[in-house]
Specification:
Distance between the termini: 77 Å
Strand order of the largest sheet: 1-3-6-5
Largest sheet: 4 strands, mixed
Order of helices and strands: HHEEEEEEEE
Number of helices: 2
Number of strands: 8
Structural class: mainly beta
Helix content: 10-25%
Length: 143
Amino acid sequence: MIAGLLVACMLMAGCTSQPENTTVTPSPAATTAVTPSPAERFAFNETDDNKAVTLPAGSEIVISLDENPTTGYSWNVTSSRGLSYVNDTFIPPKTDLVGAGGVHEWQYRAAEKGSAEFSAIYMQPWMNVTGSETTFSMTFTIE
């Protein structure tokens, strides 16, 4: 008898139906999807030395400087708070010439509103700073 009752309950549960034409209205919060806007990308090189630039927070910053590590010279880089380091890479020259220079590229994100700086000095790391080295610097105002 209990087995029969269980079978009847299971059959009845399978026979229930959902009302037709049911409309589900999402809450206002669900309909307002926030899609992050793509970060703007700003590229700089030697021609931008000593410039002051204003850019929005979250922007990508790429700084590309000529470099020839085969001579022992490389850029000694310093960046201040407000710039978040992402990556740096050396891009070799597109030639088979021995000793040809390439480009060193640094990627940062403008992380904090305020003022930030990027500076670099091109030198052989074992040499003392004399003041005659090639330098590069930029100031960023992040809004």
